[in-house]
Amino acid sequence: MTTTEPRFKLRSGDTWENPFPMYAALREHDPVHHVERGDYYVLTRFEDVWMAAGDAATFSSASGLSVAYDELAATGLDAAMPMVFLDPPEHTIFRRLVTKDLTPRKVAKIEPEVRAFVVERIESARRAGAVDIVAHLCKPLPSLVVAHYLGVPPEDRPLFDEWSESIVQASATGSVTKDANRPIAELMSYFASLIERRRKNPADDIVSDLARLGEDTVTLARILGFAFTMVAGGNDTATGMLAGAACLLTEHLDQRRRLLDDPRLIPNAIEEILRVVSPVQNLARTTQRDVEIRGETIPAGRKVLLCYAAANRDSREFGPTADEFQVDRRITKMLTFSYGTHYCIGAAAARLQGRVVLEELLQRCPDFSVDVAAGRFAAGPYVRRHAALPWHAG
Asked: N or C: which end of the chain has fewer CB within 10 A?
């Protein structure tokens, strides 16, 4: 009898349906896995991913977050370095300038706007009886939130989805230079114009706050990099969380009943949804020195994929029910928003969106369902999210 050794393969589109058996096999049998084609490593155990995410000096983001070694040069992002590609001390200095507007207390101020939007979309979906919940709610809501923080006028908001979708698809096909440069260039051109307008006529948004500091403090390129991070990262990840939540509550009616019986569990349920869904399944770092993990030496200069989704289901951290969805699970730490220097600045906004959607959805459509089998996953090897998901009011 022979045993097939576990192998890691980047997913995209429909192959995202169930990557979790692959993660489990790697966690158990090859937790520091070397992918020969592409010459990168994959970490899947919680302890190892937590360590690497918290050690920016060893596991650097400065060479990009994909497994491609020419990522920055190919896309042109080296000219307007996104915040997520910065290491300390540059990252620390810039992060202080933007996170003051993204704390849980500040984010709470947009709840009325978010709730009004969610109620309108749920009520229109209920009247229709059946919709694609991704197109109807799960994509437009994150776009609304990102646009709010960047000060983008409502008429320009559809551009966010177009650019984000193009960038993710280009990354998935590997044709980064050909397919991704155009939407990235369009994105940068748009925000360069917006920044100039905000320098003259500031508003109540992060772009205006940064523009007011002047070019000597925050360069145009740095603001452009921040805008790219918000648009490309803030849309897709929240879409993945929201659609994933709908799937979980359809597949686990016992857990839905618990939330219906006690809505006070909803904030905790959001934490569990974030853990189980893990929209950002993995991102890469680059080693700055030789590093040994579990007896395996990873040479300096190698890409290392931190598999957050695999780590978030590690029984060593979450117990024997790690693969199960339990709305009352007590979670002290997880890797959905990464950890350390690059802990996601949009975490509070994501939690707010998830909580409001669950509150309103369960109250207004307690018998809703989604057709999980008919759902389609979007292209892209790092974020697991639905491109379409049929929803029924029940």
From this structure: N
Q: How distant, in Å, are the alpha carbons of 3, 45, 242, 266, 393 from that of 364?
A: 50, 39, 16, 15, 9
- Number of residues that this document lists for the chain: 394
Reduced to 3 states (helix: H, G, I; strand: E, B; else coil), residue 337 is: coil
Nearest Cα residue to 9 out of 28, 46, 29, 37: 37
pLDDT of residue 230: 86
* Cβ proximity of 297 and 291 under 8 Å: yes
How far apart, in whole angstroms, are the C-alpha atoms of residue 186 and residue 176? Answer: 15
Alpha helices, H only, the chain: 20-29, 46-53, 71-75, 90-99, 104-107, 111-128, 133, 140-150, 158-173, 176-200, 206-212, 220-251, 253-261, 266-277, 308-311, 315-318, 347-364
Q: In 3D, which of 202, 165, 171 has the Cα closest to residue 186?
A: 165
Quick one: residue 5, left, alpha or beta (phi over 0 = left, psi -120 to 50 = alpha)? beta
Query: What is the mean pLDDT for each group of 10 consecutive residues in the chain (394 residues)?
Result: 76 95 97 97 98 97 90 63 81 85 89 97 98 96 91 81 67 50 80 89 89 84 85 87 98 98 98 98 97 98 98 98 97 96 93 98 98 95 96 96
Tokens of 349: 């906004």
- Position 71: which residue type? E
Check residue 30 and give left, alpha or beta (phi > 0: left; psi -120 to 50: alpha).
Answer: beta
Q: Which two tokens stand for residue 113?
A: 């706007």
For residue 287, the cross-strand partners are 59
Q: SS3 of 51, please?
A: helix
Indicate the DSSP class of residue 79: T
Q: Provide the 3-class DSSP secondary structure of residue 42.
A: strand
Enter the tokens of residue 299: 């040479």
Report whether 342 contacts 305 (CB < 8 A). Answer: no
The DSSP result for 106-130, as a single string, is HHGGGHHHHHHHHHHHHHHHHHHSE
